[in-house]
Every structure is written in C-alpha cells, then in structure tokens.
Amino acid sequence: MERTPEQxxxxxxxxxxxxxxxxxxxxxxxxxxxxxxxxxxxxxxRFTGSGTDAEDLTQEVFLxxxxxxxxxxxxxxxxxxxxxTLARNLLVDHFRRTRLERASxxxxxxxxGEEDGPTMGDRLADPRPSQEHHVAGLELKVxxxxxxxxxxxxxxxxxxxxxxxxxDYKEISxxxxxxxxxxxxxxxxxxxxxxxxxxxxxxxxx
Length: 206
Known about the structure:
Largest sheet: none
CATH superfamily: RNA polymerase sigma factor, region 2, helix turn helix motif
Protein name: RNA polymerase sigma-70 factor (ECF subfamily)
Order of helices and strands: HHHHHHHHH
Number of strands: 0
Low-confidence stretches: 102-128
Number of helices: 9
Helix content: over 70%
CATH architecture: Orthogonal Bundle
Keywords: DNA-binding, Sigma factor, Transcription, Transcription regulation
CATH class: Mainly Alpha
GO molecular function: DNA binding; sigma factor activity
InterPro entries: RNA_pol_sigma-70-like, RNA_pol_sigma-70_dom, RNA_pol_sigma70_r2, RNA_pol_sigma70_r4_t2, RNA_pol_sigma_r2, RNA_pol_sigma_r3/r4-like, WH-like_DNA-bd_sf
Family: Belongs to the sigma-70 factor family. ECF subfamily.
C-alpha cells in the first residue's frame, strides 16, 4: 500500500519533531505528544474498551516514549511503527495483568467510555450521515466496540491496526513481530469473527 504525498509529508513532519526532541527541544516534545495522543488513545481504547484504562495506558506509553526516545533510530523504519509497537507491548502487559479479572466479565459487558478516533462503525456507515441516522450510528459504534472486546487479543489487535488505524501488512508485521502471512490470516479470521458477533448482537437488539 503506497503512501499518499500527504501521508509522506506528515511522516516527515513527525520525523523532524523526533529529531528536535532528541536535540533537547522541549517545545518539540509537546508538539510530538499532541500529534500522537489521539491515535495512541484510540488504539488503547479499542483494545481495552475502557476510557479510564485507555487514558492511563496512553500516559504510560508517552512516559515510556520519553524515557526511550534516544534509542529510536531515525534511519531504521518509521516512528509511527515504533510508537505503535511500544503501545502494543504495554497493552499486552496490561492484558496479562488483568486477565483474571477479565475472565469473570460477562460477554455482554456494558459499553463504557467515550468514542475517540475512527471506528469500524465509521467505515460501515455512510460517511455523510443525515441527522436522523445519528443515533443509529452511535448504537452501531457501541455494538462494534462490544464485539471487538469479545475477540481474542491476537485477532483484536490485528483488526484494530489494519481496519481502524489503516496500517499496512508490513507495518503490522513489524509491530506484532509475526510474518505478513500470519498478519493476513489473523485479519481475515478477526473480520469473520467480528461479522458473526455483530450479527449475533444485532439479533439480540432487534
């Protein structure tokens, strides 16, 4: 998947900020955080389904980023892939810590937290919804999030990175440290399982 000129420009702007941060520019650090916060929060929220957990984990990501920024090699891949890998590793640790608590969660756990960032619902719905479709669109987003929470972690993260964060297979392969073929398989399985879950949830609410 080739990047557009706009994406290339945005990536170069981030790389410039990173270089300025490494040189000790505190204003550049604030700009870097501002440029990445929404995306990292969205990834954390999609994975955890909790606004509170997502905010805590987002802060943890940027704290770890601050401590490890000097280890980032600007010549070896994109900063987006690097920070996404960092966020993913923290999410895996969080999942392991809370697995016992999650084991007792009901499959139809209530939706919590606010929407932030692009959702599968956004992709399934008309990009220019009329006013009367607004409530229905919000209900779809809730159902998508509840369905995502029921996917296994490995399928959930693959679907989130591909369909919600629009990362290509190579980038996802680097983040998850698995072959591209495995990435494609997980995305395919995740999408299929997500579709079945949405059909089941749809049947329950009709």
